[in-house]
Amino acid sequence: MGRENQTWMSEFILLGLSSCWDTQVSLFVLFLIMYLVTVLGNFLIILLIRLDSRLHTPMYFFLSVLSLVDICYTNSTVPQMLVHFLSAWKSIPFHSCVLQLFISLAMGSSEFFLLGAMAYDRYVAVCHPLHYTVIMHGELCLGLAAGCLGAGFINSMMQAIIIFRLPLCHNVINHFACEMLAVLRLTCVDISFNKVMVAISGSLVIMLPCFLVLFSYVRIVAAILHIHSAQGRCRAFETCASHLTVVSMCFGTAIFTYLRPSAGSSAEQEKMVALFYAVVTPMLNPLIYSLRNKEVMSALRRLLGKCSEKR
């Protein structure tokens, strides 16, 4: 039955954010600007870290991986959403929907694990500064990054296989993209098992890194309080401020979307929260890490200086 439905369901219709043409045009302009800022901002972060030897540290290595993940995540949903804003028929082929859900879920899951790895990096930097370069060596950083990406892709593959093997009753998705909870609403069978799987996945992908972040920052705060000089405490806090801001946005949004009781949520609320997570957060990440980080701003000034000299 499931395979027959999948063959018949050759495409899905996305309802998007609005049916009003004027609103869609306004949203197109707004999200096009946000999309360009997101891609250019994250690409600039990667470029600065690649070109400036002063940024060749574990902290900035993880930041470059995070920027790459944000670019991939944004490109999995936003370009299609922009096209649909100006289209009368908002359809997506079945296989494109599967690929979109797989990539967006993989990138989102990987981001949580990366934020956990970055919290561990900050913990080592603040609590064990003399052994930082020994502990956070290159092989460990590469292994942590690869593990974060691998765990994200494994979780995404499991979820995608389970979801798209279910029989589907209709093909109208009340969302701007093929999002996991929105696709589950199309099924015509009992999805209690799938809800349990979503809860388990959420616990592993969201709560485990969240607990690692909380543990790391409890130890970091304790270490900072033992620093006698006010200048030393301020410098130690500045190394963590940007990461803590991004962590608060990402984990707060994801917990609100996936781990709250289903009875208290609606499709429209989930759509708005998912929009914030898919569009706003990847745009803010490079802004937060650049505006609140003196080393990144210094690297940007040096790059601009070199470019002006060549002219």
Second CATH tier, the architecture: Up-down Bundle
pLDDT < 50 runs, ≥5 residues: 1-7
CATH class: Mainly Alpha
Q: Structural class from helices and strands?
A: mainly alpha
Quaternary organisation: single chain
Briefly summarize what is shown.
The chain contains eleven helices and three strands; from the N terminus they run H-E-H-H-E-H-H-H-E-H-H-H-H-H. With 311 residues, it is mainly alpha-helical.
Notes on the protein architecture:
The structure is a single chain. The longest helix is centred in the middle third of the chain and has 34 residues. With 311 residues, the chain is mainly alpha-helical. The N terminus is likely disordered. The termini are far apart. The chain is globular, with a radius of gyration of 21 Å. The protein has one domain: Rhopdopsin 7-helix transmembrane proteins (Up-down Bundle), CATH 1.20.1070. Strands 2-1-3 form a 3-stranded mixed sheet. Its main location: membrane. Putative odorant or sperm cell receptor. Belongs to the G-protein coupled receptor 1 family. It is found in: Cell membrane. InterPro entries: GPCR_Rhodpsn (IPR000276), GPCR_Rhodpsn_7TM (IPR017452), Olfact_rcpt (IPR000725).
